[in-house]
Amino acid sequence: MTPAAQVALVAIALVGIVSAIIGSIGVRVARSTSDFLVASRTVGPLANASAISGEYLSAASFLGIAGLILREGADALWYPVAFVAGYLALLLFVAAPLRRSGAYTVPDFAEVRLQSPVLRTICTVFVLLIGWLYLLPQLQGAGLALTTLTTLPPWLGVAAAAVVVLVTVVGGGMRSITFVQAFQYWLKLTALAVPAIIVLGIFLNGTYSFDRPTAPDFPADTTVAIRTDVVLDVTEPVSLDAVGDVDGVRVDGPLTWAPGPHEVRAGARLTFGAGTPVPTVSGTPTTDAEWLEPMSGEADNQLLEIYSILIAGFLGTMGLPHVLVRFYTNPDGRAARRTTVIVLAMIGGFYVLVTLIGALSRLYTPQLLVSGQTDAAVLLVPIAALGPGWIGWLLGGL
């Protein structure tokens, strides 16, 4: 492990330790069932909004959105739009009634409102199902972050995340979760805002333009390790050094790709020189101009896909049980509505930074377009923009 990777590992460990310490505060003040389940309904709008934002903006959320923007371009902007719009619906239709019901859980609320034990059971099943489906990408994101920054195996990241969550939740319940998630939001906002502002400043002082009718270029000599089988599209002749299976042939040395698709097997290593046009995973925009233009592909159902994303994101946000249950911690319905308004501002601002990082990663980490590991953009952009020093790795680790 390189010294820079050790810095990232120390940053990750510090965040975990600080989270556990903050969570222990909730353990000391939790004295009743109400404390454990709903923090005695005494959490103010700002604190609760910070906790909701920290909980909602999980690893899978901001890593995935930045990766989608790097990969898909303008069409991926509909994802954060849909997610934020879901909170607007929560503000208008859900937050206040949910808090006024006096329930402790989402199934409790369903039974109180609809007077149906059967619906309570159905709601319980869906809460558990949604919880598991939401948990899996968070664990995947934890493994990805650790592997990308330190080269340690992904399962260690999964195990570390599970341990930290158990330590902070089991003892203090909702009060501990509130403290930890509020801290996590402001930490993630800082760790994202600092490199985003710096990278934006570097970009504005440069001459790069995103509307070129050509593929992006590698800013320096770059070696890409292919972890899964990929088909890469090339728009103009590309010279590279390859080791591994390429286009069905074992290669070990210089290679020239003609325009068109090229198949690369997992385990191959591709080395591109500075200024070489970047091949992209098949099915994604190949040129900067195509990446910047909405609905630039050839598929006939793109508008339907956009509507599907909006509806799924809109309704999905309204139905996340771990978000809904946080409204029970507000003192009253009015505080729940104020909480949602603050959440809209917090999440909206956060996604602006994520969008910025995702867009600029096309300039600083184009190798992710080759490997297909675009979810690592948020982790690698600070390192690429600030250089291989400890500051970039520290921000990536945070």
Describe this structure in words.
This protein is an alpha+beta fold and 398 residues long. The chain has 2 domains: 3-209 and 314-397, no CATH class; 222-277, no CATH class. The chain is built from 16 helices and 7 strands. It has a 4-stranded antiparallel beta sheet. A 3-stranded antiparallel beta sheet has the order 5-2-7. Helix 5 packs antiparallel against helix 13 (333-364). The longest helix has 34 residues, at 117-150. The model has no long low-confidence stretch (mean pLDDT 81).
Question: Main attributes?
Answer:
alpha+beta; single chain; globular; 398 residues; 10% strand; 7 strands; 3-stranded antiparallel sheet; 2 domains; 4-stranded antiparallel sheet; 16 helices
The number of helices is: 16
Strand order in the largest sheet: 1-6-3-4
Which whole number gives the mean pLDDT?
Answer: 81
- Give the end-to-end Cα distance, rounded to a whole number of Å: 18 Å
Radius of gyration: 23 Å
- Give a short account of the largest sheet: 4 strands, antiparallel
Estimate the strand proportion: 5-15%
Order of helices and strands: HHHHHHHHHEEEEEEEHHHHHHH
Oligomer: single chain
The class by helix and strand makeup works out as alpha+beta
